[in-house]
């Protein structure tokens, strides 16, 4: 970890003096709101400024896609920077800058004995083999096969030296020793016995097998383990201990191994209330707190192994000129040993009067704001900005800025979700001959992200009604009911999840993605024990495991919802309503009003309860009748005013199953679950969903209990179902 500077509050400069360059913008909906707010001069009496316009709130996977895309674009315009290291320990975790190949002749570079024994020449066995073949079975038992011991070779010797001539010579050899030139096999010592100091005889029970010895028996030939030209470390591969072993084995030097330069990432804390951590204790009641974020993030980033963290200290959030000067020096000035490539700031990005970081970056440093709010808890105000400048040679230089919330849990979680994949992409990526857009798209899609597992809740958890939550959980592997060799993960919350409560990070193995609750979210308020949700792991399962962004559950769930929303916009539900109720009652108007939020109600009719046994025919006639010909979604509703609502619901479902051509059981179960979360009585009603009229329409049976909330939550799913009718 390096320290570049620590700046406190200094001479104040007005925002007007500080903001001299015209900012870049990414669109009216984001940057114009900042520009408008910045343009309003402060009033003379220092009255509070008007509330800041809220920036669009985007899903976390979309935010990550933006970060990865802009990071890949930055990499494309950078010159690849390669370095060598001074010790093999420093290689671990680094990305190889080029393919590393085994030089000639490979490994091993000599023929080596696999056994302790005797090196022989298999051609010397020809005469003995012929003679042995002429013997009878009994004569073979007394056949003597011996060799003249003419030398000794031990592991580490460069050969056998001067070898005496003999008709059938043998050389004593140890495991790993060089097999002398001209010798092409080894007889294990277990198959021999020494008759005297100059003669070796084969044990009678092994004579036949020794006579059948083929060339290179018990010999490792040159290059057998690693052939010359083999890639022992591929370009972009992360160096592990095995790669260090392979490089050493083929005889490479440390200087031969080129790795990518680690990106430098600066960490800055902002806030008048902060005092340096691990210093003098703060006085009670003085409104001061220790700066937790900086030491936490510096150590968190160092643990990733994909960057060089740089300590940029603490700045006052009142002195925007000091912030601008410090950051400009850290990013671009030559006063520091090296500039940082990525910057992380904490604090100063929310909606308050002193939350000025976005303005500093966009107006003061000509930055481009890509997003300023994420649809998540914790970490909603997280902001991502890029700043581009041209070098003296005209090349584009880009800096990546993550302005994170000041609460430590938010800062840590958002660093994990966004900064870590960004650094991995910079560290792992390699040069390419692709055009820019192809490189950027491929880089973002194939960027390494968190490994994921599905885990079931160990206890009920109340869902947040406003945003999805990335809850800190501890994981435990438990045996599955499917068998002893199967297992699943069980997730336990780490306690109160306040964004200021660092204790919620202690013992966390991952971030469980819980949906937004309520009728505007997943349709239920409590995630109950046993329900399964994806968990982003804070530590990989193994050093070789890798999950690409495009293949992750995190991305897939957002993409599916996004595509569903796009499809919903194109879909047009044309509703027909059939009310099943006793004669003389009429609730069709009420139901039509409730369902009108789904789409235009083409027809609403009442199906008076017929005599027993005739309900099926009545429903069939109503569904296939001329009144329903222009509809593609037909609701069959049993009103709660009916005395026998639940019994009738079962009868309606039974009759509809006779009419339905393709049931949609999962949709029906989803509908029942949503209705039950609104009103427990609705959970007793048996819903039925499926296609009718030769697949040209969807029929849905339900009750009017909780129908308003159910219809609102079910609209995307119904629109998606209807969109499949024409396929």
Structural summary, described in words:
- This protein has 727 residues and is α/β, with parallel strands linked by helices.
- It has 18 helices and 40 strands.
- The longest helix has 21 residues.
- The relative contact order is 0.10.
Helix content: 25-40%
Counting DSSP E segments of at least 2 residues, the number of strands comes to: 40
Globally, the shape reads flat
Count of DSSP-assigned helices: 18
Kindly estimate the percentage of residues that lie in beta strands according to DSSP: 15-25%
Name the poorly predicted regions. 5-44
**Biggest sheet: strands, sense, closure?**
7 strands, mixed
For the largest beta sheet, what order do the strands appear in spatially?
Answer: 1-20-17-21-25-24-22
By secondary-structure content and strand pairing, the structural class works out as alpha/beta
Q: What gap, in angstroms, lies between the N and C termini?
A: 58 Å
Mean pLDDT: 83
């Amino acid at each position: 970890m390096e320290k570049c500077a620590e700046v406190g509050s200094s001479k104040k400069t007005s925002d007007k003096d500080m903001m001299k360059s015209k900012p870049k913008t990414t669109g009216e909906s984001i940057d114009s709101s900042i520009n408008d707010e910045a343009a309003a001069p402060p009033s003379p009496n220092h009255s509070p400024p008007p509330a800041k316009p809220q920036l669009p709130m985007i899903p976390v996977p979309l935010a990550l896609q933006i970060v990865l895309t802009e990071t890949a674009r930055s990499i494309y315009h950078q010159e690849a920077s390669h370095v060598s290291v001074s010790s093999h320990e420093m290689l671990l975790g680094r990305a190889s800058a080029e393919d590393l190949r085994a030089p000639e002749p490979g490994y091993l570079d000599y023929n080596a004995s696999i056994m302790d024994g005797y090196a022989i020449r298999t051609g010397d066995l020809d005469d003995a083999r012929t003679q042995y073949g002429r013997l009878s079975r009994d004569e073979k038992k007394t056949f003597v096969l011996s060799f003249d011991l003419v030398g000794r070779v031990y592991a580490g010797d460069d050969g056998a030296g001067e070898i005496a001539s003999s008709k059938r010579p043998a050389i004593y050899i140890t495991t790993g020793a060089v097999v002398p030139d001209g010798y092409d096999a080894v007889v294990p010592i277990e198959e021999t016995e020494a008759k005297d100091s100059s003669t070796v005889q084969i044990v009678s029970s092994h004579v036949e097998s020794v006579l059948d010895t083929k060339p290179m028996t018990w010999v490792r030939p040159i290059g057998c383990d690693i052939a010359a030209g083999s890639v022992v470390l591929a370009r972009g591969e992360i160096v592990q201990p095995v790669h260090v072993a392979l490089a050493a084995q083929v005889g490479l030097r440390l200087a031969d191994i080129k790795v990518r330069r680690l990106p430098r990432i600066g960490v800055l804390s902002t806030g008048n209330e902060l005092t340096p951590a691990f210093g003098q204790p703060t006085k009670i009641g003085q409104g001061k707190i220790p700066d937790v974020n900086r030491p936490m993030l510096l150590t968190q980033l160092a643990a990733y192994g994909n960057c060089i963290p740089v300590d940029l200290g603490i700045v006052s959030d009142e002195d925007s000129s000091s912030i601008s000067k410090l950051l400009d020096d850290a990013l671009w000035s030559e006063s520091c040993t090296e500039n940082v490539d990525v910057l992380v700031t904490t604090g100063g990005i929310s909606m308050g009067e002193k939350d000025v970081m976005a303005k500093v970056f966009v107006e003061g440093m000509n930055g481009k704001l890509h997003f300023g709010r994420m649809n998540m808890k914790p970490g909603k105000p997280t902001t991502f900005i890029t700043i581009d400048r041209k070098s003296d040679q005209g090349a584009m230089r880009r800096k990546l800025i993550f302005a994170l919330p000041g609460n430590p849990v938010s800062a840590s979680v958002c660093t994990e979700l966004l900064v870590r994949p960004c650094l991995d992409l910079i560290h792992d990526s390699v040069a390419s001959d692709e055009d820019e857009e192809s490189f950027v798209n491929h880089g973002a899609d194939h960027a390494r992200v968190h490994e994921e597992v599905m885990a079931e809740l160990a206890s009920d958890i109340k869902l947040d009604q406003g945003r999805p939550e990335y809850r800190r959980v501890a994981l435990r592997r438990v045996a599955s009911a499917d068998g002893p060799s199967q297992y699943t993960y069980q997730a336990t919350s780490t306690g109160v999840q306040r964004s200021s409560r660092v204790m919620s990070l202690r013992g966390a193995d991952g971030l469980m993605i819980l949906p937004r609750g309520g009728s505007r979210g997943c349709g239920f308020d409590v995630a109950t024990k046993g329900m399964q949700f994806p968990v982003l792991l804070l530590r990989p399962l193994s050093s070789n495991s890798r999950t690409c962004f495009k293949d992750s559950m995190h991305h897939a769930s957002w993409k599916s919802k996004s595509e569903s929303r796009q499809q919903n916009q194109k879909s047009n539900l044309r509703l027909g309503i059939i009310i099943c109720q006793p004669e003389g009652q009429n609730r069709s108007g009420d139901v039509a009003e409730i369902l009108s939020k789904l789409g235009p109600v083409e027809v609403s009719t009442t199906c008076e309860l017929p005599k027993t046994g005739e309900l099926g025919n009545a429903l069939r006639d109503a569904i296939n009748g001329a009144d329903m010909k222009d509809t593609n979604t037909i609701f069959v509703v049993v009103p709660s005013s009916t005395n026998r609502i639940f019994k009738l619901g079962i009868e309606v479902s039974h009759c509809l199953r006779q009419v339905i051509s393709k049931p949609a059981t999962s949709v029906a179960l989803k509908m029942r679950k949503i209705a039950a979360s609104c009103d427990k009585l609705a959970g007793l009603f048996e819903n039925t969903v499926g296609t009718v009229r030769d697949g040209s329409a969807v029929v849905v049976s339900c009750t009017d209990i909780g129908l308003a909330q159910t219809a609102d939550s079910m609209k995307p799913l119904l629109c998606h179902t209807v969109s499949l009718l024409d396929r």
